[in-house]
Amino acid sequence: MINIKVQRWVKWFLPFYLFTFLPLAVQAQSDRVLVRQGNKQFRKGNSAEAEVSYRKAVEKNARNPQANYNLGNALLAQRKDSLAITQFEKAAKLEKDPLLRAQSYHNIGVICQQHKMFGEAIEAYKEALRNNPADDETRYNLALCKRQQKDQKQDQKQDQKDNKQNKDDKQDQQKQEQQQKQDQQKQQQQDQQKMSKENAEQLLNAAMQEEKQTQERMKKAMQKPNRRRLEKNW
User: Fold this and answer.
1) CA-to-CA distance for 189 and 182, rounded, in angstroms?
2) Residue 132: pLDDT band by 50, 70, 90 thresholds?
3) Which range (34-43, 142-151, 194-203) has the least confidence?
């Protein structure tokens, strides 16, 4: 199993001209100044503060690709992945340099791959390679992602098979339990019928025995001699 570190995937891009001195009073360049401030904060590990500066830069100039891209990096550092993807997509649309555009698609692929959205990640990596065919890191991530997607499909297929087997086993168990219940009910009915028949036979035998005893008593009574009282002579 190959373990890949996030740091290996993510490419941080900071335009070189962000470090040149720019007149603060020039309104047209104020977004670049804010980006430079965000870069300083980001290098210090203050990604939340960097996010604020980059957002201000985007508010000043929404078509600044570097501001959008760096904002995506600041969001990614804070694990705000869905928001980061939105910024990388904006940066990719705005960026004219194909090499820099490839950076955005690469990072989109990284985020999707981390969330096991392999189909989306593969498309993002392919787009990155279209813009920068010489990027071996993106090519490596693409190959790894394809392998992970294949494994995921196999796991899903196995899960479906296991679920079907579990479902069949559950149905079989339910049928067995139902059959056992029906057998128990049938046995109870047979027992009740047997008890009723035995009770009837017992009652009949008792009645016949009583009748027999009555007849014997009457027979014995009829066999006894009648004793008459002798009458006295007057």
Assistant:
1) 11
2) very high
3) 194-203
- Phi, psi (5° rounding) for residue 177? -65, -40
Distances (CA, A) of 151 to 130, 131, 167: 26, 28, 24
- More confident site: 174 or 12: 174
Residue 224 DSSP label? S
Contact 38, 46 (CB under 8 A): no
How many angstroms separate the Cα of 164 from the Cα of each of 6, 158, 171, 189, 233?
36, 10, 10, 37, 116
pLDDT above 90 (res 191) = no
Contact 135, 102 (CB under 8 A): yes
Length of the chain: 234
pLDDT(27) > 90: no
Q: For residues 52 and 12, what is the distance between their CA atoms, to the nearest angstrom?
A: 18
Report whether 35 contacts 54 (CB < 8 A): yes
Q: How far is the C-alpha of 112 from the C-alpha of 175, rounded, in Å?
A: 45
- Cβ–Cβ < 8 Å for 130, 142: no
- The token duo for 68 is 């959008």
- Inform me whether the pLDDT recorded for 145 exceeds 50: yes
User: If you ran DSSP here, which 8-state letter would residue 19 be given?
Assistant: G
